[in-house]
Amino acid sequence: MENKYLGMTVNERLYVSGQIEEFDKAVKEKDIDKVISILKSVELNEDSIHPILESLNLI
Question: d(Cα 18, Cα 47) in Å, to the nearest integer?
Fold first, then answer.
């Protein structure tokens, strides 16, 4: 499977996918499941997601 987000930052991936506002809302509401779902939808893996959750103070 080709990674269409290869070489993009997380913010670029969220913007290109049209999910940046939904992601920001999920972070604000501390909806961890939704944040994880969005990050997975832009082809991030568990190893990448965990540090992001930590940096957002969600875990």
Answer: 23
Report DSSP state, residue 51: H
Tell me, what DSSP letter sits at residue 4? T
Q: Which amino acid is at 42?
A: V
Q: Convert 4-20 to b/e letters by CB count within 10 Å (16 or more is b).
A: ebeebebeebbeebebb
How high is the pLDDT of residue 18? 98
Is this structure's pTM higher than 0.70? yes
From CA 27, how far away is CA 1, in angstroms rounded? 29
